[in-house]
Amino acid sequence: MNGYMKPQDIEKRSFEIITAEMGERTFPAGIAEVVKRVIHTTADFDYADSLAFSPDVIKKAKAALAAGATVVTDTNMALSGVSKATLAKLGGKAVCLMADEQVAGEAKARGVTRAVVSMEHAAKFEGPLIFAIGNAPTALIRLHELIEEGIVAPALVIGVPVGFVNVVEAKELFIGGDTPYIIARGRKGGSNVAASIVNALLYQMVHREGF
Q1: Which of 17, 85, 87, 136 is exposed most, by the fewest CB atoms within 10 A?
Q2: Cα separation values, 112 from 108, 116, 122, 131, 169, Å
Q3: CA Rg value for the chain
Q4: pLDDT class of 6 with cuts at 50, 70, 90
């Protein structure tokens, strides 16, 4: 055992292990990179079955990123995990409004979550929008309402909140819908998963994943 491998060698070896343990399971190009990076982030092979992808979602996501998309997260943890340097190379940026004073004040006054208000504010941004939701089902529910109302048309919704209350139901709102999505069905997910999916898309555009 070599406990002093270089970081890039550790990652490469990790992906080799993931590929080997998946056996004969295969995924289309683009989707494979997302599935494997989520497994790499979580060490949880359940995502090979639970991740759901809308038709042509990888192609659509890449087009949005190439056009300088804004990635909106529902936690600062997800924001910190997104490769902002890689995103910037494509002319994009990542934002989280959860700590915004105006959002906090409005949420308190209305008696709703900050996640709800942050989605409403983010819906007003210009340009392609990618929503990466890893924590708050209320963000996902409100986002779906905004889409239904014709207020926002996201280029991609990454819906991977984790938990027990309204989580499964919030994710299922998007399955089979017209909005491009990558959804982690069931209770599992998290901010780290949301960030890893964004990064898997970004890395495909700037350099090949190591598998």
Answers
A1: 85
A2: 7, 7, 16, 20, 19
A3: 17
A4: confident
How far is residue 2's CA from residue 117's CA, in Å, rounded to a whole number?
49
Shortest CA distance to 38 belongs to which of 188, 155, 205, 208? Answer: 188
| Beta strand ranges found along 45-111 (DSSP E) | 51-53, 70-73, 93-96
pLDDT at 94 over 80: yes
Amino acid at residue number 135: N
Number of domains in the chain: 1
In one-letter notation, the amino acid at residue 158 is I
* pLDDT, tens only, 135-172: 999 999 999 999 999 999 999 999 999 999 999 999 99
Position 172 in a domain: yes
Contact 181, 52 (CB under 8 A): yes
42 in any annotated domain: no
Residues identified as active-site: 40
